[in-house]
Design a protein that fits this description.
The structure is a single chain. The protein is of the alpha/beta class. The chain has 2 domains: 135 residues, Aspartate Aminotransferase, domain 1; 240 residues, Type I PLP-dependent aspartate aminotransferase-like (Major domain) (Aspartate Aminotransferase, domain 2, 3-Layer(aba) Sandwich), CATH 3.40.640. The protein is 41% helix and 14% strand. The strands form 3 sheets. A 7-stranded mixed β-sheet has the order 2-8-7-6-5-3-4, with helices on both faces. A 3-stranded antiparallel β-sheet has the order 9-12-11. Strands 1-10 form a two-stranded parallel ribbon. β3, α6 and β4 form a beta-alpha-beta unit. α4 packs parallel to α11. The radius of gyration is 21 Å and the shape is globular. The structure holds pyridoxal-5'-phosphate. The site of pyridoxal-5'-phosphate has 14 residues, from α5.
């Protein structure tokens, strides 16, 4: 039999990360002590209290059956209550919240709910690659909004041509941002809401990093805190980064009732919801969310400072992050992203993600994840120094 892939698979861009992984493995096989600052996956374990809640809930046979599509009413209501406590945003757990199997799942399914073939999704570049791919899977076309350093890595909404706006149905945004670690300004979010209203474009805000911040006086806000946001948008949130739960697959989407229901329609026909024991562990996570949170973010803060200050000392132009666990910087000596990434890998045994892995406007930049301990970060800086570029 001749098995052929669909065009949507054949047309996928070459997967850069797979290429880096292969090179990394080859070095490890040769005995090189590789320092991997590539993946953004917390090395800090999930808090004990959450694991205990899972253990307990897993014992209950009523949790072994199919969960409800929208997620347990008890968890949806906990999400609503967390939005109230954390952001002072009032939402109804029954109308404005759906539980996701990780926020990536929700982001990836969103275009299926809102995009017809030929429609456009406005996508930040550099950005999380799922926005683009999911748009294309739905038959839509991504329009790239450059995130430039001179604009604080926020898109210039006035620069989007009218003919594009006419065909645009949704706009993805993501703050605090991966990969640039930028925060959005109040002014930007307010303008985005006005823009959404004027052009009838649904805002899909990916808020995975609102709890990874380093300065109590510069706390990231939810998009839904802004006047009118509930009329024009929704927000994807995740327990992954906040509670070191990337492996658990639990997130939620909160926002406009009709928009949330659209995502619900898609999910009802594709999956059957997150394991209820995991959702009950999620209730524990959110109910006592401040427990241990600062200790965890202090670790990322210390590492981010260590790496960014270290890189600055050897002459690299670094944007000191205020949150997330990424350090985004301009490559030394004007090197192209792939050139620098290869050099790091081959000459220093260091894995970092070339900016172009996040889109064409990432060219000239590199992303390092501080999901490794201090010693390895110090060692990484010293190896880069020895490169003398
Ligand atoms: C990690 C990440 C996610 C996905 O988180 P999950 O809830 O684990 O699926 C979504 N968006 C961005 C920008 C991320 O970095």
């Amino acid at each position: 039999m001749n098995i052929s892939w669909a065009d949507r698979i054949n047309n996928l861009p070459p997967y850069l990360f797979a290429e880096i992984d292969a090179k990394k493995q080859a070095l490890i096989d040769k005995g090189v002590d590789v320092i991997d600052l590539g993946v953004g996956d917390p090395d800090i374990p999930t808090p004990e209290r959450i694991i205990k809640a899972l253990n307990l809930s897993a014992q209950n046979p009523s949790n072994h059956r199919y969960p409800s599509y929208a997620g347990m009413a008890s968890f949806r209501s906990e999400v609503a209550s967390w939005y109230k406590r954390r952001f002072d945003v009032t939402v109804d757990g029954d109308k404005n919240v759906i539980i996701l199997i990780g926020s990536k799942e929700g982001v990836a399914h969103a275009p299926l709910a809102f995009i017809n073939p030929g429609d456009i999704a406005l996508v930040p570049d550099p950005g999380y690659p799922v926005y683009n791919i999911a748009t294309e899977f739905a038959g839509g076309t991504p329009y790239l909004m450059p995130l430039l350093e001179e604009n604080g890595f926020m898109p210039d909404l006035n620069a989007i041509p009218n003919d594009i706006l006419k065909k645009s149905k949704i706009m993805f945004l993501n703050y605090p941002n991966n990969p640039t670690s930028a925060f959005a300004s109040d002014d930007f979010f307010n303008k985005a809401i006005e823009f959404a209203n004027k052009n009838n474009i649904l805002i899909c805000h990916d808020a995975a990093y609102t709890e990874v911040y380093f300065n109590e006086n510069n706390k990231p806000k939810s998009f839904l805190e802004y006047d009118g946001a509930l009329e024009v948008g929704l927000e994807f949130h995740s327990l992954s980064k906040t509670f070191s739960m990337t492996g658990w697959r639990l997130g939620h989407v909160v926002g406009n009732e009709k928009a949330v229901a659209g995502i619900g329609k898609v999910k009802t026909n594709i999956d059957s919801g997150a394991f209820q024991a995991v959702q009950e562990a999620g209730i524990e996570a959110l109910r006592n969310y401040e427990d241990g949170l600062q200790e965890r973010t202090e670790i990322y803060k210390k590492r981010s400072m260590l790496l960014s200050e270290g890189l600055k000392k050897i002459g690299i132009d670094v944007i000191t992050p205020e949150g997330t666990f990424y350090v985004w910087f301009k490559n030394p000596n004007g090197l192209k992203s792939s050139e620098f990434a290869n050099l790091l890998l081959e000459k220093s045994g260091i894995v970092m993600t070339p900016g172009t892995g996040f889109g064409i406007y990432g060219e000239g930049y590199t992303r390092a994840s501080v999901t490794l301990d201090d010693e390895q970060l110090i060692e990484a800086v010293s190896r880069i120094e020895k490169l003398a570029i």
